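[Automated response] Your request has been received and processed.

Submitted sequence:
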Amino acid sequence: MAKRVSTGAPGLDSILQGGLEEGHVYLVEGGPGTGKTTLALQFLLAGVDRDEDCSCLYLTLSQSREELLGIAESHGLDLTGIEIVELLAAEVTDLSHTQTVIGTAEEELADLIETIGAEVEKHQPRRVVIDSLAELRLISSSMLRFRRAILGLKGNLAKARTTALLIEAFDGMGTVESSELTTHGTIRLDWTAPDFGVTHRRLQVIKMRGSPFFEGFHDMTIETGGIVVFPRLVPRPEPREVERWELRTGDETLDDLLGGGLPGNSTTLITGDTGAGKSILSAKLADATARRGIKAGLFLFEEMRADVLERARVIGLDFDDHIEQGLLNLEHFNPTETTQGQIFRRIEEVVADGARLIVLDSLTGFVRTLRAGGELLPQFNALLNSLKQLGVASVMTLNEGAEHPAGQSEIDFSFLTDNVIRLSQYRQDGAIGRSIWVGKKRYGPHSRKIRALHIDPPGVTVRPIEGAFHVTADKTDDVST
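Generated structure:
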């Protein structure tokens, strides 16, 4: 079995199921600003970190040594141990020489390939980066010449038994196909810019000859220290044995409405119109869980952390104590400044720390971090299934009738969840009240009654509704108990 070497990005190593096979030539392609050079530097630094005797060589055909050092400094990377050799194409050949029968460009290309081979032979690197193939392409008189140049370069690297990354600019027009065909594997980086918010970057492994990898797009960010790759969530195919537990609210009447409680590895959607109490009910579930000594994570996508803490104090929830004891993780995310991968990673970290309940408040904000279109529901479903396999309960709130941020019509998440709790507001005797009922419980019985939900200091309670009431949204006329 071929030895694996790290790419320097742990998430990418996971996607490649252990890293790159040693001794082969790989292509890293992408447009400007996608992180190609940063990944290349991480790859070389991984060799230095893991083997003090590892010779690492960076052959730059387009950027100067000073530019590379500047890039490294901006990411907090120390390039000690990496040999940087400038091979700027214009300096390889003296164009003042008299032309021979061979065209000047072809002469220059042959000289450049020979120079690269000489540098590899001189330094005998275990890892090498050649940045970038665009310079070779520019001085090639035809695609045939370019392809032959790449094959010659590949042959020189194979003789040296080095693991190499070739960097190539990708313009989306198929101009890198020759490079892809000649290398052992291809990794593509790209990015999209939303109308508002941070740039969304992602990575895709196009091919790896004779080596398994996780297909599809994977989120990535460029941070201090280099690129961070977030492998997409893939639920495990085999079932897991997990300790069974029940999710309860701490209020006997409300728990009776839920049929005594909800399975601890189920997914619950709390839906209703604005002001019906969705966030407060989800907060009560987190509070009741923490009171039992079970860790919970509450992720906010709309309200600020300070506002939620203040409201919790008013209605008698012990959030401050729970946080101090490490039983509650309360975090706010700005959907326009956060990627899906960052949120998924944070959820995984909180679960790894022992959380058995994850609350997402609300889905309207959460889905802004997911990609629009047909990918939305599969991504969301993968998250829910992954949590279920770990025995973690998930609770989401959704504003009924809320439009999807991409401008699409309302998306029905209820069919993906095991339990649905519906809240509403009603008019009665000149006042506005709140109602609650269970619309769905996939595993086990539940009450079919409609109850009044009271949110007043010192807490949240459920009581019978007396007489008839009118739903404020006028979706129904008269509803009686």
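Summary generated for your ticket: The first strand starts at residue 4 and ends at 5. Confidence is low (pLDDT under 50) at residues 92-102, 402-410, 473-481.
If you did not submit this request, please reply to this message.
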